[in-house]
Amino acid sequence: MAERNVLGGELEPCGTDPLTGFFRDGCCSTGPEDLGSHTICAVVTAEFLEHQRSIGNDLSTPMPQYRFPGLVPGDRWCVTARNWAIAFNDGVAAPVVLAATNEKVLELIPLEALQQLAVDVPDTPADLEG
Predict the structure, then answer these.
(1) Which of 32, 43, 102, 120 would be a feasible disulfide site paired with 39, CB 3.0-4.6 Å?
(2) Which candidate, 93, 92, 94, 52, places its Cα nearest to that of 75?
């Protein structure tokens, strides 16, 4: 069965340039071996990247041995629920792509918190009308 997103639909890809995901498959897929719960598809900002570095999670420096290119603002990346939550509590969380965020994160973070920073959902259904 396909993994689901926090909106209840099929989990959409998060990013392929750079290639993200715990399994480096472009999706925020997860499994028992993903101890960090890399389930939130975030659009990283300079403020978020600096905050992550300040808590010991350097996402800017390339680490080729882990197939990690280093991130720049605007990149989409599957971040851990814990580190996103710390940034959220500190007021610097990165925006979230809900359609590409794994529903498993809801075991750790309420949907309402993710929705506050959603970048892929219109404010009202009327916004969908063209």
Answers:
(1) 102
(2) 94
DSSP notation for 52-67: HHHTT---SS-BGGGT
- The CB density around residue 9, as the number of other CB atoms within 10 Å, is 12
Mean of all residue pLDDT scores within the chain: 92
A 10 A CB-CB count for 11 gives 23
Asked if residues 42 and 96 have their Cβ atoms less than 8 Å apart, the reply is yes
CA–CA dist 97, 78 (Å, integer): 10
Tell how far CA 110 is from the center of its chain.
14
pTM: 0.90
Q: Which residues pair with residue 5 across a beta bridge? A: 102
- How does pLDDT run across 89-107, given as a tens digit for each residue? 999 999 999 999 999 999 9
